[in-house]
Structures are given as C-alpha cells and as structure tokens.
Amino acid sequence: MNLVRMGVAAAALLVLASAASAADPIVIKYSHVVAENTPKGLSALKFRDLVAERLGGKVKVEVFPNSQLFNDDTVLQAMLLGDVQLAAPSLSKFEKYTQSLQIYDLPFLFKDMEAVEKFQNSPAGQKMLDSMAKKGLLGLGYLHNGMKQISASKPLRVPADAAGLKFRIMTSDVLAAQFDALKATPLKKPFSEVFTLLQTRAVDGQENTWSNIWSQKFHEVQPYITESNHGVLDYLVVTSAEFWTGMPADIRKEVKKALDESIAYGNKTSHEIAEGDRKKIADSGRTTIIQLDDRQRALWVDAMKPVWKQFEKEIGPDLIQAAADFSKP
Ligand code: SIN
C-alpha cells in the first residue's frame, strides 16, 4: 500500500471509531447498599427502566445493589473519581462532606415521615441539596426509607436497658452521641457487615427501618425490636457535579425527569413497604416487637433529646426549631 492509500485507510478508521463512540450511550452506574425489594432498591430499578424506555441508546443505567460495587463509606470518593455516577447514601453518611445534613439524625426531631417530607420540601430542606457543591457533589433529591427502630439481644423497654450494650451505627457523630446518651457503646460500621456483627454477637444491637431489618434478616438474629420510631433514615440521591454538568443539557433534563419520577415512586411505596415489612417481621415469630407505653416513650425522649443541645451550634438553633415545628400537633 502506498503512503496516500495508507493515509486514507487510517482516516477512514478514525471516522469509524469516532462514529462508534458518538453512538455509545452515556453510562450511569447507580450503586447502593440495600436489597432490591426496598424503597431505594425499587426506586433505582424504576429509574433504570424509565431511562431505558425514554433514552434507550443514548443513556444506560446500570444498578448495583447490596454493596456489590461500593459500600457507603467509599462510594462518594469513588463518585468524585468518576467510578460511579449515582448513589443514594443515607443522610447520616455525608458527615465528611457537609455538616448541614446532621439535622436529620437528631433523635425525636420528626414525629413521622410526613413531618420529614414537609421539612425536606421547605426552602431550608431544599437548600441542603446544594450543601456539597463546593466539594463536587450535587444532591438531586430526597428519597424515603422510614422511621428507625432499635433491635437488640435483650428487651429494651426503658433507656437504662441499653446501658453497657454495643450498638452498630452509621457513620454519624450525632448517632454516636445518641447512644452515648444511653450509656451504650456505638460502633460505626458499614451496612454490609451488620448481619454478621449481630449474628456473631460482636455487637448487641442496631437501629434501622422495618424494610432494612426485614430485607437483611436482622430480625432472625435479634430477639427483640423496640418500636421506638426515634429517628429517620432517609437518603440523598447524589451525583458528581462534573458528570452531571458534563451531560448535554437536553439529555440531562430527561434524565432528571426520570430520576424525579423514580424518587416519587420510591417515596410513595416506602410507607406501604414499612407497614408490610413490619407485619412480616411480627408474623415470622423470630423476634418480639416491644411497643412502648407513654411513660416509657417519655423516658427515651428525655434520655436522647439532650443530643440536640450538643449539636445546636453546628446545626443552628433556628434550623432545629424550624424542623421541630413541622412535628407540632
Ligand atoms: C441504607 O439504608 O442505605 C443503609 C442503612 C444503614 O447503613 O444502616
């Protein structure tokens, strides 16, 4: 082949290669740590399906549940490195990136999920979505799981019952303070390790939602669950600013629309899932659900609420009051 022919062939190859890459879809890897039959698991699958329906060929969503790709302690760093594009860690797991989300961990701040949603939709709640922009992370929306319960190897009816026990917690100083207030020992551990920690009695208990307790089978290795509803476990769907703003504007708009719809779907199903999973746990006969009477509940509030004061300076007293107002009768 002479030089001219070689040049033409090389140019043709280049054109083919760039045509192929122009046709390659944008891949969104969505990593999370829970099972698929949970509000987050179902919402992620809904997002994948909506994107395939509306943007098939242009955008492809790959969902990795059950900490298959990253656990919550590593996923945000991986996101900033471009190894994953979407995740929805619990609001308790952003401490390294922003302090503003700490408010969601304050015990007994929200009386139910309705109060949580009202606060999230308020200007203060919406402002928090952008609280990590300077660190390269964008909050795209809040996704619900539900209210937390406390499980343990012994019955916990009053706060003094928890004294001296070890509890697995998410990576949050507020949650650590909450268990310190009970004179218990909190241990920050990834979600993927909780079942084994409980099964081997390396810890005595943990706090989680009905859907996480059911889907991870915690109730099979924890003989007691106190229905405390003392705190909220919700998620922030998060992406890297570099990835998000790098998408063509028209595609980004469609992706956001699909994401919003999948979040609304997850939020709508979260209530039914919580009720259904609570019933399945009760019916399983593997654990005893302890309901608190008014006097016992007041003792838990008295024991845990001083944590608000401890974090008042970091979070802001006005913000705490604004959130608390949504739980007023
Ligand atoms: C999750 O729901 O994503 C995990 C919660 C936990 O770490 O306990």
Question: How would you explain this protein's 3D organization?
Answer:
- Residues 6-20 have low confidence and may be disordered.
- The protein has a six-stranded mixed beta sheet with strand order 7-6-8-5-9-11.
- It has 329 residues and is of the alpha/beta class.
- The protein is built from 13 helices and eleven strands.
- It has one domain (23-325): D-Maltodextrin-Binding Protein, domain 2, CATH 3.40.190.170.
- Bound molecules: succinic acid.
- Residues 33-34, 90, 145, 170, 191, 208, 212, 233 line the site of succinic acid.
Q: Topology, please?
A:
Blueprint: H1 3-23, E1 26-31, H2 39-55, E2 59-64, H3 75-80, E3 86-87, H4 113-121, H5 123-127, E4 137-147, E5 149-152, E6 166-169, H6 173-181, E7 185-188, H7 194-199, E8 205-208, H8 210-215, E9 224-227, E10 232-240, H9 241-246, H10 249-284, E11 288-291, H11 294-304, H12 306-315, H13 317-325
Parallel strand pairs: 1-2, 1-3, 6-7, 6-8, 9-11
Antiparallel strand pairs: 3-10, 4-10, 5-8, 5-9
Helix pairs in contact: 2-10, 6-12
This protein binds succinic acid (SIN).
Residues 33-34, 90, 145, 170, 191, 208, 212, 233 line the site of succinic acid.
Descriptors:
329 residues; alpha/beta; D-Maltodextrin-Binding Protein, domain 2; six-stranded mixed β-sheet; five-stranded mixed β-sheet; binds succinic acid
Summarize the structure.
With 329 residues, the chain is α/β, with parallel strands linked by helices. The chain is 46% helix and 18% strand.
